[in-house]
Amino acid sequence: MKKERRLLAPFLMLLAGLIASITMYMMQYELQRMLGILLLTLVLFYIVGLVISKVIARFEAENEALLAAQEALEGEVIELDPDEDFDTEEADGAAFAAFDVAADEDIEYMDLPD
After folding, report:
1. Distance separating alpha carbons of residues 85 and 27, to the nearest angstrom
2. In this structure, what are the phi and psi dihedrals at residue 18, rounded to the nearest 5 degrees?
3. pTM for the complete prediction?
4. Which residues touch 17 (CB under 8 Å, ≥6 apart)?
5. Average pLDDT over residues 23-36
6. Where are the domains of the chain?
């Protein structure tokens, strides 16, 4: 992925230079003026390409960190002892008891951490 991102700035610069050159040639610019504008276009779009590459790299780093955190959370599994008798009715009752709300109570929403 880094190789592709590394070539983004030069590719964008050359593409913009090609478009600018063809446009200026079709509009019959003088050679001196054409070269000045082309140089400015190449430098400007190279810088734009570098900025875009940095932004993409930052987003990829954030996504990798989130995926690593998500994989770490998914990896936590609690195993039950096979010899232990597990009462599913008791577990369901305890789980739903936490969510019982009386009909006349207002439900308050809390902000949960991400």
Report:
1. 85
2. -65, -45
3. 0.57
4. 38, 41, 42, 45
5. 95
6. 2-71
